[in-house]
Each structure stands twice: as C-alpha cells, then as structure tokens.
Write a structure and sequence with these properties.
The chain contains 8 helices and 13 strands. With 300 residues, the chain is an alpha/beta fold. The protein has 2 domains: 139 residues, Murein tetrapeptidase LD-carboxypeptidase, N-terminal domain (Rossmann fold), CATH 3.40.50; 142 residues, 3-Layer(bba) Sandwich (Glucose Oxidase, domain 1), CATH 3.50.30. Strands 6-13-12-7-8-9-10 form a 7-stranded mixed β-sheet. Helix 1 links the parallel strand 1 and strand 2. It is globular, with a radius of gyration of 18 Å.
Length: 300
C-alpha cells in the first residue's frame, strides 16, 4: 500500500493543539507554545482544549468534535497532541476523515496517539509522525526537538546509533509501522491495527509489568504478527514494574525471546518513546534498517 506523506510546513503556518486523551491545563503547555512560536509557527487552540471529564479532556463527544474541527480547518497545517494517557481509542470511530484524506496534514504524538498512527496508516494510507507532545516537549533533547521540526519542514531523518548487546544483525528495507505496545495490543482484530506483514515494526512502552510485556508479545506472536515482519526496532521500555516474585527477564529480553527464532534484524535501545531523547519517526515511511557494529535507520 502506498502511504501518502502530508505536505511540509513553512514558517508562519498554523499548528493546532488537541487533547484526544487525558486532560491538560494551559500552564502545562506554556513552554511548548513558546517552543513552537520560537520556531516560527503560529499555535492554535480553543478553550475546549482544557475541558475535563474525569481523567479525560472532556467527554468522548467533546474530544471528537474538537479533533474534527482541527482536522477540517484548512488553515491548520499540522496537529500536535497535548499529551497521551488514555482515550484516543474511544473517539477514533467518531471521526469523519473524508476531508482529511483529501487534504492530509501531519498528526503528531506518541504513546496513546499510536491509535491515530495505526488508523491513518492502515485505514487511510496517510503517514503520521511519532514524536514529542506538548506536555514534555521542553524536556526533549536538542536532537529530538530539531528532528521534529526538520520533519515538519520536509527533511526526513537518518539515524546512526550505538549497537545493543541483544541486537540481531541484518538488513531490511520496508515501511515502518507501530508505536506503543500496549496500545497496539488493544487494537488487535480491529480496522485500526496496522498492516505488519513485510513491514518493520517499532515498539515502545511505559510503566508496564514485565509479565504484561510477555503476555502482549505472546499475543502478537500467536496472531502471526511477529513471524511476518521484515525487522523490529525497540525504543524505550521505560519504568517497567515487577512482581514480588521476579519475572526473571528484562523487557528487552522478553521481546528478544519472542522473536529470536526469526532471521530479521532486531534493534534495541532506539532513542524514541517515553524518554527525553524522543527522536521523531515517520510512520508509514519507507526505511532502511541496518543492524551491525552500528545501527542505521534511514528514511526515504
């Protein structure tokens, strides 16, 4: 499937802020506003961004209506999520992507935004950007921030990183897909679960129990997802939890155990996910992954 890349931005373009999941306050995004303005962009958001309904940024109907408005506004050239948490899966089926497909724009975020990355790539054939969100943008490294704006302005990244002792060497050329492991697992069997056959899968996660990681990887394996991959890139597996009786393996070791029988390249420790060095990844883009003495990931 050919996956379409949204148009690049230029200085002065408007970027819309959305909150499809957990609630956010103005004080929590003030630094991010300054960062976007310093890079020459106009930021756009309405008071509805700060609605609250329990944990959510407003009820499902309100979050969907606000997201729809940002998608349909011709002046908005990109959309950035305020934060993750949980909630995008509750609104994805309430959205009408008719106009968006005709005039796509970058949708940016990670974690819970995996719902959008997966749906856009699988159901709509549109690329999206796995990258920094407003809440923690000021904590991102210079490389992560500059990379984000480089992609928005039409310059896809090429990464060279240190190898990891658990890596499986090899070379693959394919489309990149994936995101947060827990969110992907929740999409299994739905129209939004990404096409993974002959693709390079990216995975990251935060604050999960190690046995949950094992259960999710076993679920993907039994569904035939893992054996059909061309490659696997594993980002931050951050702040993992264990039980009183230890599981006995790290998250990385659990993942390796689930794919070790396959001969595709596997890269661990990639700088993306719930970490400050959250480098942008273009989901749906053609990439070349080479895992050896160093790891290279080149976007086309």
């Amino acid at each position: 499937m050919n996956v379409k890349r949204p148009p690049s931005l230029k200085k002065g373009d408007k970027i819309g802020f959305v909150a499809p999941a957990r609630k956010i306050s103005l004080s929590e995004i003030e630094k991010a506003i300054s960062i976007f303005e310093q890079h020459g962009f106009q930021v756009c958001f309405d008071p509805e961004l700060f609605e609250a309904d329990r944990q959510f940024a407003g009820n499902d109907q309100a979050r969907a209506a606000y997201f729809q408005k940002m998608m349909d506004d011709d002046e908005i050239k990109a959309i950035v999520a305020a934060r993750g948490g949980y909630g995008s899966i509750r609104i994805i089926d309430k959205l009408d992507f008719t106009k968006f497909v005709q005039h796509p724009k970058w949708i940016i975020g990670y974690s819970d935004m995996t719902v959008f990355h997966s749906h856009l790539g699988k159901a709509l054939g549109i690329q999206s950007l796995h990258g920094g969100m407003l809440l923690h943008l000021e904590e991102n490294t210079k490389m992560a921030l500059s990379g984000l704006f480089d992609v928005l302005e039409g310059n896809p990244p090429n990464y060279i990183i240190e190898t990891h002792p658990l890596n499986q060497n090899g070379f693959a050329k394919a489309q990149l897909t994936g995101g947060n492991l827990s969110v992907l697992y929740s999409l299994l069997g739905s129209v939004s679960f990404p096409e993974t056959k002959d693709k390079i899968l990216f995975l990251e996660d935060l604050d999960e129990y190690l046995y949950h990681i094992d259960r999710m990887m076993m679920g993907l394996k039994r569904a035939g997802i893992l054996k059909a991959l061309k490659g696997l890139v594993v980002g931050g597996m951050t702040d993992m939890n264990d039980n009183t009786v230890p599981f006995g393996k790290t998250a990385e070791e659990i993942i390796l155990e689930s794919v070790g029988e396959y001969d595709f390249p596997v890269c661990f420790g990639f700088p993306a996910g719930h970490i400050n060095d959250n480098r942008p990844l273009i989901m749906g883009a053609e990439v070349e992954l080479e895992v050896g003495d160093m790891v290279t990931l080149k976007f086309r």
